[in-house]
Design a protein that fits this description.
80 residues; mainly alpha; 55% helix; 0% strand
């Protein structure tokens, strides 16, 4: 199992929203709402097929924006 497949319920906080979009690349929940977190995790575990597309969307975004290649390109732009 891909370790990224278990990361679809991050906290709904500004740094996380910069990386994930609720409903597109994961499910964001209130950081302080334990019941919401538990419910979101339970939903993913009970309906794994529904979360395949968001999981792949999150992986594609991470590969495009946080790879070594994209970091090198970002530095090249900064140094111009």
């Amino acid at each position: 199992m891909n370790r990224l497949s278990n990361t679809e319920e991050p906290s709904d906080t500004a740094p996380v929203r910069d990386v994930l979009t609720d409903g597109d690349s994961g499910t964001l929940v209130n950081f302080f709402d334990a019941e919401a977190i538990a419910g979101a995790v339970a939903h993913v575990l009970q309906t794994p097929d529904m979360h395949r597309a968001p999981r792949h969307s999150a992986i594609r975004y991470a590969q495009a924006n946080f790879s070594v290649h994209s970091a090198i390109e970002a530095y090249r732009v900064l140094l111009r």
